[in-house]
């Protein structure tokens, strides 16, 4: 990924306009106590949403712009980050027709206690929210990794990287002196393990059932060392491994239980994301290159080249059937492929605002979730050939999206100065009457 620093074209959104004294009609027309009420946001339940409350608690009735009008403004003014100019405008003719009539996940709760964040100078990385069950969510909030229990409503700190973090276990390769003030760029949590990647190549591993941090290492001393993505998976032997994609153009495979580096692969460009197939025989590799790759994860040899995207890619994921996979790109598309024939994609799915920053397939394979950088999450029906989707919309930058292992819950982290929160959606079933009890 390219360094963004302060050049990211992030437009002033309507929440900034609330704080702008020149904003026509809002601040001038309300008293101080009304302004405090305007920015005092509370949680929202499914029952409250059904009665008309905005899911994010935005008091549209007090503003001089309604939700529909502001949506039009956002669609017109949001500027997608591109490495290749106007890449998002060149793919329209290739895009699949999608009917946005699906109803797969229902809004359940929005908690304001949780404050997801992303690093302002590397806003291309959005894998900062993970669920280990339908009630347990891990996310990045400033320098901390937090745990949210939707069952108890309790928020707790798991690791605080603002100070000094050092490992408690001794093993070869463990950086016993640890790290100080680590800026978290990416996160992965699965089963009993948590892996956090840092802006300077740091990798920190933690066993969730033990106190402290188990393992720390710095993957590289390269100046361009951002840990772009981490994926935890079970190897063919049954051991838990993870792969780390780095801006130094390297991909590293670790045994997470032994904290041992198993493999290192080098590519000709910075690697933004990798994902491994269910049979562990193929790995997708995407990064600062128009074309993606399918490679042998053992030796890095190219199996196939993925041609079609118009910009750099930052997301990939495999369908549990083992041959379907998807790639997400800054050209505002998600492309779905069949590994048995990658001459052309199965589907080219166009976003509304910007890049496909995060992709998740449900464990049963029925849905594919695609997150844009802001405002929109799309849930595609894979059994309908990706021609039907549910479009979930809100306002704010997306820090991450995840499905619980049983696919029952979907969580979306929203990063915003005023309306930061964690959205929970529950898989739609026939027994909606249960919502009335919450």
TrEMBL record:
InterPro entries: WD40/YVTN_repeat-like_dom_sf (IPR015943), WD40_repeat_dom_sf (IPR036322), WD40_rpt (IPR001680). Pfam families: WD40. WD repeats lie at residues 306-341. Keywords: WD repeat. This is Uncharacterized WD repeat-containing protein C2A9.03-like isoform X1. The gene is LOC101494435.
């Amino acid at each position: 990924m390219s360094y963004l620093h302060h050049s990211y074209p992030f437009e002033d959104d309507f929440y900034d306009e609330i704080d702008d004294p020149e904003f026509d009609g809002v601040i001038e027309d309300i008293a101080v106590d009304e302004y405090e009420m305007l920015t005092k946001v509370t949680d929202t339940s499914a029952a409250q949403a059904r009665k008309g409350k905005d899911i994010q608690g935005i008091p549209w009735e007090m503003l001089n712009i309604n939700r529909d009008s502001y949506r039009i403004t956002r669609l017109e003014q949001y500027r997608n980050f591109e490495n290749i100019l106007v890449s998002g405008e060149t793919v329209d003719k290739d895009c699949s027709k999608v009917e946005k009539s699906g109803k797969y996940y229902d809004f359940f709760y929005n908690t304001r206690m949780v404050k997801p964040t992303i690093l302002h100078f590397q806003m291309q990385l959005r894998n900062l929210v993970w669920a280990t069950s339908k009630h347990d969510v891990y996310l990045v909030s400033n320098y901390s990794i937090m745990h949210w229990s939707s069952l108890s409503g309790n928020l707790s700190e798991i690791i605080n990287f603002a100070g000094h973090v050092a490992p408690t276990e001794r093993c070869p390769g463990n950086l016993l002196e640890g790290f100080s003030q680590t800026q978290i760029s990416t996160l992965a949590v699965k089963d009993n393990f948590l892996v956090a990647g840092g802006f300077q190549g740091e990798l920190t591993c933690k066993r969730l059932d033990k106190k402290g941090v188990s393992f720390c290492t710095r993957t590289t001393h390269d100046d361009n060392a951002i840990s772009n993505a981490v994926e935890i998976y079970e190897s063919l032997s049954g051991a838990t491994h993870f792969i780390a994609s780095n801006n130094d153009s390297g991909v590293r495979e670790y045994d997470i239980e032994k904290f041992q580096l198993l493999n290192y692969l080098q590519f000709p460009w910075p690697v933004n994301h990798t994902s491994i197939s269910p049979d562990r025989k193929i790995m997708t590799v995407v990064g600062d290159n128009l074309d993606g790759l399918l490679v042998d994860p053992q030796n890095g040899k190219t199996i196939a080249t993925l041609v079609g995207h118009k910009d750099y890619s930052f997301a990939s994921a495999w369908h549990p059937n083992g041959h379907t996979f998807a790639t997400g790109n800054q050209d505002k598309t998600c492309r779905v492929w069949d590994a048995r024939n990658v001459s052309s994609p199965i589907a080219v799915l166009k976003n509304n605002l910007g890049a496909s920053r995060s992709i998740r397939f449900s464990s049963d394979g029925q849905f594919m979730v695609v997150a844009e950088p802001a405002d929109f999450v799309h849930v595609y029906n894979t059994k309908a050939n990706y021609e039907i989707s549910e479009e979930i919309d809100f306002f704010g930058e997306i820090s991450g999206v995840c499905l619980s292992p049983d696919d029952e819950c979907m969580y979306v982290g929203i990063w915003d100065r005023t309306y930061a929160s964690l959205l929970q959606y529950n898989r739609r079933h026939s027994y909606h009457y249960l919502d009335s009890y919450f």
